[in-house]
Amino acid sequence: MLKHDSWTKAHDIALVFLALAYTTDSDLSNAEVESISTSLSRWRPELTKDQVHAIVLEAGSVFFESEAEQEIVESVRSLGTALSITQRREVLEDAIRVAEADGVLLNSEQNLLSVLAGAWDIKATKDRLIDESSARLENDPEWSILHDIALLYIVMGHSADGHLKEVEISAMIDRLGEWETQLTVEEIRSILRAAIDYYSQGPNENDLTDSVLAIKEALPKSQRLIVLDDLVTIARADGTVIESEKDIVESLSSAWNIDVRIAL
Q1: What b/e string do you get for 151-175 counting C-beta neighbours within 10 Å, with b at 16 or more?
Q2: What is the pTM of this model?
């Protein structure tokens, strides 16, 4: 089911909330569904409970389509254009309520909230809301999805000439910082150092495949596309993009089921 002619901003909001609630742990709790409905009621107070429920169902029909990622991206962009900055902040507040409805803010939920805040230019609001959240914040594991992303950054930067240039490392730090804006530069450097240490041990093909698969499983397609964009930025950091770097992007695009062509 694609978006129909009667699709509204309330549908866009519901779709974003569903993506946040479901893609982070592949489950929709009753508390999360109730939180989505409650948030929509605040946006459309004139609607009955049944009408709000219908919007959630219609958004859900789009969400569970196999190619829903592009629809989600379009909804995020549409809301970013149509809503005022005050309204975008209010949507983000509701999004965090949805995420913390089960009592825990997962790392993956925090990552997705960071992406929303970045797309809507309200990162400071996201940082404040997470600091004020009453939910338990999931502690970063010793090796997180950020380490997997950092490892792919390093593979890209190292593939050109067997060295990591300072300009490439700077690009990696900048891009990692976009994923977790609440981290300090030193914390980001620590993640990058851990990934470099791991890479220096000479991981085999299966080890790298584990990181590729971990990213595919943890991140929705829209966020996997951002990782590809990060890798393109790192490839361009030294001013030259070579064939092996193009091959890495194409290989990951195929592994992550992203049928796009990124100009290199």
Answers
A1: bbbbbbbbebeeebeeebbebbbeb
A2: 0.55
